[in-house]
């Protein structure tokens, strides 16, 4: 595929506000996961998550419109502002040649929770009048469009853990198709509220110990929250305004298992990774680093390893692969964008962030994913994967800028 | 096999009832050697079974390697019973 320029990135995560806070935490293996308490859950079984620190959120909310914005939109807009500032976009760069593609798995979970609670406790009383515009899944995307007067297409993909990865891929497709010159793309998710956390508990996919992707003794994932936003532009537009190109998006694919709603099918992941690589025109040996979906569940990590091994073949053993989810938590509909940002930073630094809490090789999957400490790698391209409930797979390939050529 | 032998009859009966009920198994004539896929138990049914175990015994069973490898009703029961026994030991200590 024709490369698309990445000119700005922004993140709000449990690691703090900003790409720098996220990247340094990922690189240094500093986990933002800690004990959390949800008082309305009678018997809280899972005791850990990676929430945005309260003082950080309060600061963002003070600069936002909390009467009209759910937590999801507040952190999404903050991440978008960082990305747009980094890209150096001016007011004239928006308008109808700029689109917004920002996904979310659940939308305004906090508003939904508060609304139902209030309704059940006092059904006749006035609720949150702004509940609907706050909780709708496209709220973040629409607030970002309003914030910058981006009047091109606004889209919101809600495909669980693939939402943000597909959003970035679709934004690149829109640019390459000539529909827009630039796009603000990514995802936002904030569902660390009692009711949603209890629902996640019931699925029994979260660990009660530590999230240790690909490791022996792994037994589940850890939830996070956050927003990741990138600015994508056609190479021509980026050059025309003299923008710094952080990296180039050179490959994207998305496929569907169409087999089981929850259990991943290695064949689906394999076809996705293969097609993404093919679309980039790069040989497997060109990829230096893969930020894996790596949830830490038995099933995902097994399926993803089989898929990577199938596609990379002889190059698999030399590949630096890691999952950064134990650091920022699994941010679901934002996860793909947060991990894409880490992938770009890893590529620029030529440094693969570690898979922390790795105890040792699981003989069933038989490989070591950059264990516990960051490792330098050499390569001009990297990949980021997302595999969602619903059997939806999405992979992105980024490369270092190749200059004017 | 030691696990299965150690599984007391009362617990076994309760767990079999959970598998039948939550797995929505129509033919109740299955036993420990019956394969889970023969009973049509899929990923969603598995989650229902774990939820019922949590409600009845107060123990959270994450989907770990042993559970993933369980192919028969007996293997599933052994893993779940192991978690229940660990939990009971922890509570009593």
Describe it.
The complex is a heterodimer of chains A (405) and B (93). Chain A has 405 residues and is α/β, with parallel strands linked by helices. Helix content of chain A is 35%, strand content 20%. Chain A has 13 helices and 15 strands. In chain A, the strands form three sheets. In chain A, strands 1, 2, 5, 6, 7, 8, 9, 10, 11, 14 and 15 form an eleven-stranded mixed beta sheet that branches. In chain A, a hairpin with a 3-residue loop joins strand 14 and strand 15 (392-399). In chain A, helix 1 crosses helix 13, helix 7 crosses helix 13 (335-349) and helix 10 (266-280) crosses helix 11 (298-312). The relative contact order of chain A is 0.19. With 93 residues, chain B is mainly α. Chain B has helices spanning 2-6, 9-22, 43-57, 65-69, 73-92. Chain B is globular. Chain B starts with a helix and ends with a helix. Residues 1-5 of chain B have low confidence and may be disordered.
Question: Radius of gyration of chain A, rounded?
Answer: 20 Å
What is the 3D shape of chain B? globular
Major sheet characteristics of chain A: 11 strands, mixed
Radius of gyration of chain B: 12 Å
Query: Average pLDDT value of chain A?
Result: 97
Biggest sheet architecture of chain B: none
List keywords for this structure.
heterodimer; A: 405 residues; alpha/beta; Peroxisomal Thiolase, Chain A, domain 1; 11-stranded mixed beta sheet; two-stranded antiparallel sheet; 35% helix; B: 93 residues; globular; disordered N terminus
Tell me briefly what this model is:
The complex is a heterodimer of chains A (405) and B (93). Chain A has 405 residues and is an alpha/beta fold.
SSE arrangement:
The complex is a heterodimer of chains A (405) and B (93).
Chain A: E1 4-13, E2 16-17, H1 19-28, E3 34-35, E4 48-49, H2 54-62, H3 71-87, E5 98-103, H4 109-121, H5 131-135, H6 139-148, E6 154-155, H7 163-176, E7 182-189, H8 194-203, E8 226-234, H9 235-240, E9 247-256, H10 266-280, E10 287-291, H11 298-312, E11 320-322, H12 325-328, H13 335-349, E12 351-352, E13 375-376, E14 381-388, E15 392-399
Parallel strand pairs in A: 5-6, 5-7, 10-11, 10-14
Antiparallel strand pairs in A: 1-2, 1-8, 1-9, 3-4, 7-8, 9-15, 12-13, 14-15
Helix pairs in contact in A: 1-13, 3-6, 7-13, 10-11
Chain B: H1 2-6, H2 9-22, H3 43-57, H4 65-69, H5 73-92
Helix pairs in contact in B: 2-3, 2-5
């Amino acid at each position: 595929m024709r490369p698309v320029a990445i000119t700005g990135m922004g993140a709000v995560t449990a690691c703090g506000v900003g790409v720098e806070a996220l990247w340094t935490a990922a690189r240094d293996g500093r986990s933002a996961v800690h004990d959390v308490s949800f008082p309305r859950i009678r018997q809280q079984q899972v005791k850990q998550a990676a929430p945005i620190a309260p003082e950080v959120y309060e600061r963002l909310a003070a600069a936002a419109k909390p009467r009209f914005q759910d937590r999801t939109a507040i952190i999404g807009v903050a991440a978008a502002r960082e990305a747009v500032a980094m890209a150096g976009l001016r007011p004239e760069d928006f308008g109808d040649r700029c689109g917004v593609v920002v996904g979310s798995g659940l939308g305004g979970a906090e508003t939904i929770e508060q609304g139902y609670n209030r309704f059940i406790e006092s059904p006749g009383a006035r609720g949150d009048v702004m509940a609907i515009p706050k909780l709708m899944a496209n709220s973040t995307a629409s607030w970002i469009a309003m914030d910058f007067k981006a009047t091109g297409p606004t889209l919101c993909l809600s495909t669980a853990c693939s939402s943000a990865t597909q959003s970035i891929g679709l934004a690149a497709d829109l640019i390459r198709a000539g529909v827009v010159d630039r796009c603000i793309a990514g995802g936002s998710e904030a569902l660390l509220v009692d009711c949603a956390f209890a629902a996640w508990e019931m699925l029994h996919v979260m660990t009660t110990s530590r999230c240790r992707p690909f490791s022996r003794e792994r037994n589940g994932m850890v939830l996070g929250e956050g927003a990741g936003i990138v600015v994508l532009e056609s190479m021509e537009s980026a050059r025309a305004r003299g923008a710094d190109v952080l990296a180039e998006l050179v490959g994207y694919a998305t496929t569907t298992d169409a087999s089981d709603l929850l259990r991943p099918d290695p064949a689906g992941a394999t076809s996705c990774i293969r097609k993404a690589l093919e679309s980039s025109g790069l040989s497997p040996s060109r990829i230096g680093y893969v930020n894996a979906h790596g949830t830490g569940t038995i099933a995902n990590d097994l399926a993803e390893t089989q898929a990577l091994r199938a596609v990379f073949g002889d190059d698999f053993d030399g590949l630096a692969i890691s999952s950064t989810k134990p650091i920022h938590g699994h941010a679901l509909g934002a996860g793909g964008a947060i991990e894409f940002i880490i992938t770009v930073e890893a590529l620029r630094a030529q440094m693969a962030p570690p898979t922390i809490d790795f105890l040792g090789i699981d003989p069933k999957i038989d490989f070591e994913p950059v264990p516990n400490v960051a490792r330098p790698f050499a390569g001009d391209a990297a990949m980021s994967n997302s595999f969602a409930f619903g059997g939806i797979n999405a992979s992105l390939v980024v490369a270092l800028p190749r200059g004017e050529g | 096999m030691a696990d299965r032998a150690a599984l007391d009859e009362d617990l076994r009966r309760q767990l079999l009832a959970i598998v039948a009920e939550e797995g929505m198994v129509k033919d109740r004539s299955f036993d420990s050697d019956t394969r889970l896929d023969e009973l049509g138990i899929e990923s969603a049914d598995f989650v229902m079974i774990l939820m019922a175990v949590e409600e009845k015994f107060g123990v959270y069973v994450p989907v770990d390697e042993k559970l993933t490898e369980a192919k028969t009703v007996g293997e599933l029961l052994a893993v779940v019973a192991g978690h229940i026994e660990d939990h009971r030991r922890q509570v009593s200590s």
